[in-house]
Amino acid sequence: MSFHMVKITDFPDVIPVFPLPGALLLPRARLPLHLFEPRYLAMLDDALKTDHRLIGMIQPHGEDRLHTIGCAGRVTAMSETEDGRYMITLTGVSRFRLRKEVEGFAPYRRFEAQWSGFEMDLGKEEDDPALDRPALMALLDRFFEERGLSTDWDGIKDAEPELLINSLSMLCPFEPEERQALLEAPTLATRRETLVTLIEYALREGDGDKRMMQ
Predict the structure, then answer these.
(1) CB contact set of 29 (below 8 Å; sequence gap of 6+)
(2) How many beta carbons lie within 10 A of that of residue 167, not counting itself?
(3) Residue 153: partners with Cβ closer than 8 Å, 6 or more residues away
(4) 0.70 exceeded by the pTM?
(5) Positions of the chain with pLDDT under 50
(6) Among residues 15, 53, 18, which one has the least CA distance to residue 35?
(7) Which residue from 93, 82, 95, 21 is spatially nearest to 50, judged by alpha carbons?
(8) For residues 110 and 101, is the Cβ–Cβ distance under 8 A?
(9) What is the pLDDT of residues 8-20, one digit of tens each?
(10) Residue by residue, what is the 3-state secondary structure of 49-80?
């Protein structure tokens, strides 16, 4: 199935769901995954037998619950290691809303998915005319420097707004609930605003910790 001209009505009613804390997949972005548990190897095997090759990524919420909104990705790359594990790449296709869990014999969880409400995920790349790129990159440099992390932005700093903002949302070391807020942002501009808010909050928290230690 080509996803260039896909419509929501083309999507399956039921999809396999992979609950993974802290893993963020966004439409048109790529997420590398390392699969080794038998149930998720079975999930991959079953997904590859379908035309759409979709796997739904979703954040756990508490002990046994899941967030209601996730993002489905298509398996677009795969390689097997010598010891039987798989490295795969999911390319984000569309967000979805969880409906009823489907009982069955599969060792992984399957849910009915509602795709309506996320039609813009299937359109062309979003733009963000209000993006202040130098200010965003300066803020990110401060954020990563404070955490002692690498700030090698050369690969993405000149990227189109969607690739830049989504890549940073996926790369930054945020908590799962914060990643969920980035996923649920309705537009690219609101995702960038959420990203900036999270970074500024983290920097303020860091400054507060430093003052307490003095």
Answers:
(1) 91, 92, 163, 166, 167, 170
(2) 17
(3) 137, 140
(4) yes
(5) 1-3, 211-214
(6) 18
(7) 93
(8) yes
(9) 678 999 999 999 9
(10) CCCCCEEEEECEECCCEECCEEEEEEEEEEEE
Q: What is the pLDDT of residues 105-143, one digit of tens each?
A: 899 999 999 999 998 898 889 999 999 999 999 999 999
Contact 12, 113 (CB under 8 A): yes
Structure tokens at 166: 């989504």
- Whole-angstrom Cα Rg for the chain: 18
Q: Which residues of 75-93 are buried (b: 16+ CB within 10 A; e: fewer)?
A: beeeeeeeeeebebebbbb
CA-to-CA distance for 41 and 107, rounded, in angstroms?
A: 10
C-alpha to C-alpha distance for 199 and 208, rounded to whole angstroms: 14
Side chain identity at residue 12, one-letter code: P
- Which of 73, 78, 102, 104 minimizes the C-alpha distance to 170? 73
**Nearest to 22, CA basis, from 65, 56, 58, 55:** 58
